[in-house]
Amino acid sequence: FYANLAAVVAPGFVAVNITFRNTAGAIKHQAVALRNGADLSTFYSCSFEAYQDTLYTHSLRQFYRDCDIYGTVDFIFGNAAVVFQNCNMYPRLPMQNQFNAITAQGRTDPNQNTGISIHNCTIKAADDLAASNGTIKTYLGRPWKEYSTTVYMQSYIDSVVDPAGWREWNGDFALNTSYYAEYNNTGPGSDTTNRVRWPGYHVIGNSSDVGNFTVFNFLLGDDWLPQTGVPFNSGLLS
Asked: Is the pLDDT confidence value at 1 over 50?
């Protein structure tokens, strides 16, 4: 079941310095802290805290800046066009026999303009996971739907992320049709040498190839973010 703490649908919604927390705990499995279906919504300096399915980026265009997101299985999921910039993503300690997947993007059609863009963020283990015995595997994402799309660029990826980087959803489902990419990331977990060899996985070497996933291009940020008062970087960092 879904235990939604909050749901947002109003276009242009802005949240600043708010914590969205679902206290159901890992044992309740899917327990959403926020379900967001608000077009051109922005979240600045907010925290999203749960375990499985923490942040449901349901649909439309969304922007998160300087936020903290805590979770375990598929803890950022949905089918919005969403950019996370200067955010911290903290995989937590899941239940026994579970693993962590930071993202589970849900694009169902190649013509949709949806996806998850993670720009200049930090991926590190939460305190409970860092203090564990180190047997829990954490992945950057897995393909929830056939055309799942996720890009990590210019982010710090700590050693908590498994060298394979990405995990299957179910057998070979969506491994050919998904688009997963990494560009110019740093940290011990950013080494792409032993990453998956799926047709849908890419290591990007040219900044022009990730331009479509910047705030400016992906969310028409030039038209609306300055009006919210939320700072943003419209392009790639130098």
From this structure: no
